[in-house]
Amino acid sequence: MSAGFLEIRNLVKRYGGAVAVDGASLSIAKGDFLTLLGPSGSGKTTILMAIAGFVKPTEGEIVLSGRNLVPLEPEERDLGIVFQGYALFPHMTVAQNVAFPLELRKWKPDAIAKRVEETLAMVDLTRFADRRPAQLSGGQQQRVALARCLSYQPDLLLLDEPLSALDRQLRARLQDEIKSLHQKVGVTVVNVTHDQDEALSMSTHIAVINRGRIVQYGTPDDIYENPATRFVARFIGRSNVATVERIETKSDGASALIAGQWLPVEPNPAVAGKAALSLRPEMIEIGPLGTDRTDARKVVMDARIENCVYHGGTTALDIRTAIGPLRAEMPTSRLGVRPTAGATVQASWPVRAGRIVSEDDTALDQQ
Ligand code: ADP
Ligand code: MG
Question: What domains does the chain contain, in order, with CATH numbers?
Answer without folding.
Answer: 6-230 (3.40.50.300), 237-363 (2.40.50.140)
